[in-house]
Specification:
By secondary structure, the protein is mainly alpha-helical. It is built from three helices and no strands.
């Protein structure tokens, strides 16, 4: 029984990954299921949302630059020996 069991196990070990690869690469299933679900979870951005995001990024970038420019003026002077 040892050889038959090993042949069965080897067949199972080789068949399972190949079957899963074949199933996962079905274009119709992928488009119908995964892409549709992605569109439900994350709808396409609207132009006004995109503009708000860009304005927010610019505002944050400006605040960081101002903060970095103020840091050296606050730094204490190093004592000279």
């Amino acid at each position: 029984m040892g050889v038959k069991l090993e042949v069965f196990r080897m067949t199972l070990y080789l068949t399972f990954p190949v079957a899963m690869f074949w199933i996962a690469n079905q274009a119709e299933w992928f488009e119908g299921s995964v892409i549709q679900r992605k569109r439900e979870l994350w709808p396409p951005e609207k132009e006004d949302q995109r503009q708000e995001l860009e304005e927010f990024k610019a505002r944050i970038r400006k605040q960081r630059e101002e903060k970095l420019l103020r840091l050296p003026s606050r730094a204490p002077e190093t004592p000279k020996c």
